[in-house]
Amino acid sequence: MTRISVLLSQLAIQPWRNRRRRVLLSTAAVLCAGLTGQPVQADETCQSPYMAKITGEEEFVYVWTLGLEGVGDGQDKVVTVDVRKDSPTFGKAIDTDSVGGRGEAHHGGLTDDRRFFWVAGLSDSRIHIFDVATNPANPKLVKTIDDFVEKSGGVVGAHGAYALPGRMLIPGLSNKNHDGRTGLVEYTNDGQYITTHWMPTAENTQGAAVEKVADGYGYDARVLPRKNVMLTSSFTGFSNYMRPLGEVMKDEEAMKHFGQTMVLWDFHARTPKKVFNVPGAPLEIRWAWGPYNNYAFTSTALTSKLWLVYEDTDGEWKAEAVADVGDPAKLPVPVDISLSADDRTLFIDSFMDGMTRVFDVSDPHRPKQIYERKVGGQVNMVSQSWDGKRLYYTSSLLSNWDKTGADGAQFLKAYSWDGKELAPRFEIDFLREGLGRPHMMSFGSSKLYAS
Amino acid sequence: MPSRTVPRLILATVLCGASLAASAHDLHEREPNAGQPIGPSTGYAFALPDPGSYRLPAIRPAAGGSVLDERGRGHDLADLLQGRITVLAFMYTRCGDLCPTATLQLSLLQDLVAKDQRLAQRMHLVSMSFDPDHDTPEVLAEYAATWRSSEPGAPEWLFLTAPDRSALAPVLAAYGQAVSAKPDPGAAGGPLYHIFRAFLIDASGQIRNIYSLDFLDPELVLTDTKTLILNQEQDQHAASPAP
C-alpha cells in the first residue's frame, strides 16, 4: 500500500526516540482506515472529494427546483424525495421548502460535513442555505445570502456550491454588465464572505499560459486535491442565459459570447496556471477518482464533444477532444455528465434529444459508447450512486430554454443500472405534483448524523 | 515554481468510521486504467508554491472557549492563540484512522520547524480533543509524550481538552466541527464521527486557512506559515511612510 510506504518513508527521516511508537500508531491508523470492512457506499460520484460520504444507500434526494408561474406556489424550492426502498413513501416527494420567489434556481451543493445544502439562483444571485442535518427528511431554510453581488465585487449569477474544508466555493456565470466574465467566490460554511478570484482574461492573464484566448468566463469548478489542481469551465453571461434559447441561437452576435476555455489553477494558491482552448461551452467537470487517474472529463454543449483534460507523461496538463456525443450536426447539446466511482463508465445527458448515453471510458483517450436511452423530451441532470447501481435524472435546464408542449415534461426519473441497461424504478411528474422544474440533485441520509 | 515536490499523504475527508474504500482518494491500490498515461508525478505529489507568492485571506476570527491543558490548568483558548501563528487541529485519542495520521503530520511539521529557530519562536501547534469524557488532561499528557518532540529548538505543541461537554460545545460550534457518536461505540476507527479539520491562525487570531487531511502536509503548512509572515512584512513595508 502506497500510503503506508509513504508514511514509513517519512518516518524514516525522523531521529526521534519515540519514532517506533509513531510508526506503530500511524501504521495502525492506515491499516485500520484501509483494511476494515467496506460497507457499500452510496453517494453522488460528482460531489466534492472533501465531503463526508454516505454509508449505505442514499435515503433522500434533494431536488433544487425552479418555480413555474401557475404551478403550485410558483416559487423556487427544495423538494425532498424519499428513496428508501422499504418506505411507504418510496419514490414520493415528502417535503417541499420554498424560498419566497423565483430566482432561476440552478445548482447547489452540500458543505464538507454535509450538514448544509446551499442552493443558488442565476437571475437573483441569491444563495439559500438549508439545514439538512437536524432532520434529513425535512430540510429547513436557515439563511439567505442576498448580497452576493455586492460582497463579491460584482460577480453575478451564483452558480454552483462546491465544498472545500470549512468553506464553500461559488463559481459565478456573469457580472454587472451581464456578459460572461466572472469569478469564483469563497464563503465560510455559515455564509460569511471571504474572497473573490476573478477568471483570467486577455487583459489580465494573472500569469497563466494561454493556448488561444482567455475569455474570463466561468461555469463549473472542481478540485483534485492530491495534485493541487482545480479546473474551471465556461458557459455564457446573464444576457444569454436569461434569454429564450431560440432567440440566442438565431443571434449571430450572441452566439459569439459562449465560453471557449477551461482553466487549470494552482488550487492552494488560487492562481490560474493554464488556459486551455476548449470551444463550444465546456460545462460540467468530473475528475477521475482512482489514485493514478490524473484526468477529468467535460462535455461541450455547442459542439457535442467529450473532452479529456489530463496530465501527460511529460508532466504537462493537456486538453483534447476524445469523442462525439451523438451527432454534433443535430445539436444534441450535451449537458450533465456523471463518472462512475471506478472511472470506467461515463453517463452523458443531452438536452435537446432527451437522451442519456453511456460510454466505456476505461481508456479515457478512447471512449466507446455502449448504451443509450431516451429519458424524456428533454433531460439535463444525472446523479449516480457511489456503487453505480442507481441513477436519477431531472429535466430542467433554464426557464427560458426548457421546451414547451409534449416535450416540456418536467420530471425526476429514477433507474437502476446493471452495467448493461437502465431499468425504471420510479418517476415523479413535477408539473402534476405542483412543484415546478426540477434541476440539481444531492443525496441525503439520516445515518450521516447518527448520535 | 520550484521543482521540488511534496509526497502526499492523501486520505479522504470522510467521517471517521465510515469505510474509506470508496472515498475520494481510495486507500486501496487500484491499477491505472488501460491505455491511460502514467505521468511522472502519479500518486501524491505536487510542486509547492514559493512562500509569499500567494495570499491567504482572513476567513474569520478564531474563537476562544474554556479549555484545560495537560496539567489540568484552565485557559481561554483565545488567549493561547494570541501573539503567535497557530496550527490548531481537532482530534481525539480514541480515533483509529484520521486523527493519528494527522497527528503524525503535525509531528513532522514540528520537526521541520525545529530547524528554523526564528520561525519556531513565532508559531506553535495545538491539538484540541473533542472527547472530554475520555481525553482527560492525564490521558492527553501521555498521548502528547508519544508524539511531541523533545528537541529544545522545537516549537511548542499544546494538547488541550475541555472541562466537560457543555464547555466543549460552543468551541466546536465556533469552528464548525461537527462530532457525533456512532451507533456502535466499538466501530472501527473509533466511537465518534467527525470530519478532520485543522486551522492556520495568524498572530492576531484570524483563521487564514483550513486544512483537510489532503492538505495537512508539513511542508505545505510550513510554506503557508512563512507566507503569513512574509505577507505581514510586505503589508507593513507598504504601509510605512516614505522616508
Automatic annotation (TrEMBL), chain B:
<keyword id="KW-1015">Disulfide bond</keyword>
<feature type="binding site">
    <location>
        <position position="99"/>
    </location>
    <ligand>
        <name>Cu cation</name>
    </ligand>
</feature>
<feature type="signal peptide">
    <location>
        <begin position="1"/>
        <end position="24"/>
    </location>
</feature>
<feature type="binding site">
    <location>
        <position position="95"/>
    </location>
    <ligand>
        <name>Cu cation</name>
    </ligand>
</feature>
<keyword id="KW-0732">Signal</keyword>
<keyword id="KW-0186">Copper</keyword>
<comment type="similarity">
    <text>Belongs to the SCO1/2 family.</text>
</comment>
<protein>
    <submittedName>
        <fullName>Electron transporter SenC</fullName>
    </submittedName>
</protein>
<dbReference type="InterPro" id="IPR003782">
    <property type="entry name" value="SCO1/SenC"/>
</dbReference>
<dbReference type="Pfam" id="PF02630">
    <property type="entry name" value="SCO1-SenC"/>
</dbReference>
<dbReference type="GO" id="GO:0046872">
    <property type="term" value="F:metal ion binding"/>
</dbReference>
<feature type="disulfide bond" description="Redox-active">
    <location>
        <begin position="95"/>
        <end position="99"/>
    </location>
</feature>
<dbReference type="InterPro" id="IPR036249">
    <property type="entry name" value="Thioredoxin-like_sf"/>
</dbReference>
<keyword id="KW-0614">Plasmid</keyword>
<keyword id="KW-0479">Metal-binding</keyword>
